[in-house]
Each structure stands twice: as structure tokens, then as C-alpha cells.
Fold this protein.
Amino acid sequence: MIVLDGKIASQSVKDSLKIQVAEIHAKGKRAPHLAVIIVGNNGASETYVASKVKNCAEIGFTSTLVRLENTIDENILLQKIDALNNDDGIDGILVQLPLPKQINEQKIIESIDPAKDVDGFHPISAGKLVQGLPTFIPATPYGIMLMLEHFNISTKGKHAVVIGRSNIVGRPMSILLSSNSKYGNCTVTICHSQTPNLKEICLQGDIIVAALGKPEFVKADMVKDGAVVIDVGITRVEDATAKKGFRIKGDVAYNEVAAKASAITPVPGGVGLMTIAGLLKNTLQAYRNRMLDVE
Ligand code: NAD
């Protein structure tokens, strides 16, 4: 059984990006620049945002963190995004989700210039992904594809079962795995909260991607021997014995499933780290696309 270690795979992506940024610097050009907007102070969002900013610094990107109050009006956020859209020195814009209730998330996603949409959530980016055109792939599915590539997991002709149909994970994941590409060419079944016989379907999966947000939902009796199991879930579960008062749990019951799987991602230390790698790659791509215009 192989542990698909996100630390190793993401470090390899970051090392390659670091070299590319050094080459950019050597030519006397400015570094790629990511703007991250956080609204309010949700604990998990704070952690993700801090990690994104830290990783940018690690590989030589510039980042700007924009903090806005939880109570702000939607228009203030739209104005902020508009300013970043029009700022030539910004290559990528990311608005950390979820947003407070008074703000329409879809409207915010659609207000980001598709050329700077490094999260890949804009309908233009999603439409291009569906048609197999070059685009920004949502960071988590992108990171999973980078993970499959790093560990050279063969996918061609395999049956992949994706649990979850969200726009940020499950749906784009199903498109990538079914695409005509080296780490695609799977036959994909996409499952969701209304899927009957989920266990029977999972048992047919050569590859299972669990992205439903229910801690330890996928048990050993749902997984066939030798399956590749990708755990996307991140849920904070209260635990008084933990230092922070909670533990991070994935969507897979790791120990029992690992005993049957041929490869499995741990949580933490798996897909989460690859998500950052995907975001960084998208940001460099946005930079390159934009700098071509000025070269
Ligand atoms: P979401 O709530 O938007 O979507 C969950 C999906 O799971 C839905 O499509 C729903 O139909 C399906 N679902 C819910 N209950 C189900 C059930 N009992 N059986 C089958 N399907 C069921 O969530 P999301 O944004 O896609 O995130 C999913 C999980 O992945 C969450 O735990 C989230 O925190 C985590 N996540 C992790 C990363 C990362 O970097 N590792 C990134 C994004 C999301």
C-alpha cells in the first residue's frame, strides 16, 4: 500500500515553481502576484489563507492579503474586486469562501476577471474545463491530478467513483478523470446525497474520490481490494483531548480503508497540500498569460 503523501508531491511541484520564479527574477521581471481576500474571521478560512500567503512567500511569489469586516456590504467587496481586476500588478485573485450571508457568492465569483480567476470558479473557467480547453482548473481537483501524476497512478480504463458534485471539487474532478488525458480516461460515476446504493457503487470503484464533507463516511466495507482512495474531506471534529479543541477528519475511515487500498491519501497531509500546489500553478499560469501581453 502506498501512502499518497501530499507533503512530498506538493514539495515537488513547489520546487519546480521556485526554479521558474528564480528564472523570472533573473530576467529582471517582477514576481507573480496573488491577491487573497478574506471576509470576517472564520477559523478554518484564516488557516487556509495564512497557508496560501506563506506558500507564496516560500516560492518567491508576491501576495497581498485583503481583510474585510464580516458585516461589509456586498458592494464594498465588489468594488475591491473591481480595483484588483484593474490593477496591472495583480495576476491572480482569490476570494476565500464561504462568505457571510449578506453576500451573494455566485455574484462575487462572476465579478472576478476570468484572466485572474486562479480558483477556477468563474463560469467561463468551468465552461472551458468542460470543453477541454486551457483554463484555470479549480485548485483541489487540479491538486489531485498533480498527485496522481506525481505517484504515477494509472487511471486509463479504470472506474472512478466520485462522491460529491460540488462546483469546487466533485463536478470538476469527474470531468478531469473522464477527460482524454494521461491521468484521465476513466469511466466515471458521480454520486451525491440522492444516490441510492452508494455502497454498491463504491465497491465497483478502482478509484474513489470522497468529497462529501462527512467525517469517516467511507468505511472498509465500501471499498474493493486494491482501490486507490483519495480523501478530500476536511472537517473539524471537536475533541477535548486535542490541543486546539478539535481534530481534522477526512471523509474516509483511514486505518480500516488503508488495510484494503493499494494507495490512499492521509488527512491531514494529503489533498489539502495539493490544493495549494494547484493554486500556485494557476497563479504562475495567470502571470505568464498576462505577461505575454506586455512582452
Ligand atoms: P459541498 O457541501 O459543497 O458538497 C458536498 C457534496 O457531497 C454534495 O454534492 C452532496 O450531494 C454530497 N453528499 C453529501 N452527503 C452525501 C451522502 N451521504 N452521500 C453521498 N453524497 C453526499 O462540499 P465541498 O465544498 O465539495 O467539500 C467537500 C469536502 O471537501 C468538505 O469536507 C470540505 O471541507 C473538503 N474540501 C477540502 C479541500 C482540500 O483542499 N482538501 C478543498 C475543498 C473542500
The chain has two domains: 28-113, 139-272. The mean pLDDT is 97.
